[in-house]
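Anyone opening a protein record will find just a pair of labelled lines. The record below illustrates this layout.
***
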Amino acid sequence: MKITYATKNVEKYFTNYTLMQKRLSLAWVRTIKKHINHLEAAITFGDFLTLGLGKPESLSGYENITYSLRVTANVRLIFELKTISESIESCTEIEVKGVCDYHGRKQNWYIS
């Protein structure tokens, strides 16, 4: 899948994991890197979903279709599907929004 980033700041951290390590713990960075590698390796979002890695969850309260992957029990990697058709399974591009402590309506962003 193709991965883009919501802002230049997000791109800066997600293209330099050494820099990300200055803001987040090493364990978090390793998990995030694994998630990004798995997303890049999948051809479509449907392929990624069938693997069940990272406990993907659909998030409410966003304008577009948005999902999260677990980094820890409370920390999530947030991304938006950039789909053209009505089927999320055929989506071939995502936009990473960042990493946040996600508790329903309350969000504390670590990288955004």
User: Anything to note?
Assistant: The radius of gyration is 13 Å. The chain is about 30% helix and 30% strand. Strands lie at 2-5, 57-59, 66-70, 75-81, 93-103, 106-111. Residues 32 and 100 are 12 Å apart (CA to CA).
